[in-house]
Amino acid sequence: MKKKLFSFVVFMALVFSLAGCGTVPPAESELPAAEPQGADDHYTEVPPAAETENVRQDGERYEGISMFQGMEQTVYYEHIVNKTAGFEMDYDYETFVRHSEADRERFVLAWDDDPENPEYYLEVTYSTEDAETVAAAISEELSNDYEINRGATELDRAGSCIRIGASEVKGGGYTADQMQMVYIIPTDDGCRIATAHYGFDSSDLFGARFRGMVNTLSVIDR
């Protein structure tokens, strides 16, 4: 009950904060509202944006666009570079708090009441194992608790990757309170792994927001 109440409060707080942003130029992608049904139905694909050269500097901030329930919203991004883990990307610095380590980045919802054990966050790291090996290991682990859904998807800057969705309770036939979406990006030196964690009550909203951040990820040499 506490988790569901927290999820609802977080969802409403973010929706109201977004609703006050006003109208901005046309969005690159659009997320239609949909009633969740199955494992992947909690997540709506965002069409790839027009390809542009990424020349932003580490720490640079800028305004971007997001769509939720037909409304255009301004999102404030900060560009980051992690050379140890071998990636650079942008994150929504008004909504998430960055927790940086040499080999990983974690972006925790600013309103999460337990940052050390968060419910809403995106974690990006790397592995020297190839993408298929990592995907098999993650699938095996998640399948202990979830009915997983694996497929391929295209990211704006990182290209084709393996996507593993975990939203339905194993053998239960119903949606889990806590869900995950994992993106495994093949690279010459192994792979990069981005894992989004969020609750059922606001899965559409955070599924789209995390996907928007993952779409900004590009691979660099470690």
Give a short overview.
This protein is α+β, with helices and mostly antiparallel strands. The protein contains 3 helices and 11 strands; from the N terminus they run αββββββαββββαβ. The strands form 2 sheets. A 7-stranded antiparallel beta sheet has the order 4-5-6-10-9-8-7, with helices on both faces. Strands 1-2-3-11 form a 4-stranded antiparallel beta sheet.
* Strand residue content: 35-45%
Order of helices and strands: HEEEEEEHEEEEHE
List the strand order in the largest sheet: 4-5-6-10-9-8-7
Mean pLDDT: 82
- Could you list the spans in which at least 5 consecutive residues all have pLDDT below 50? 15-52
Roughly how much helix do the residues carry, as a percent range? 10-25%
Report the count of strand segments: 11
Largest sheet descriptor: 7 strands, antiparallel
Please report the distance between the alpha carbons of the first and last residues.
43 Å
- Which class of secondary structure composition applies to the elements? alpha+beta
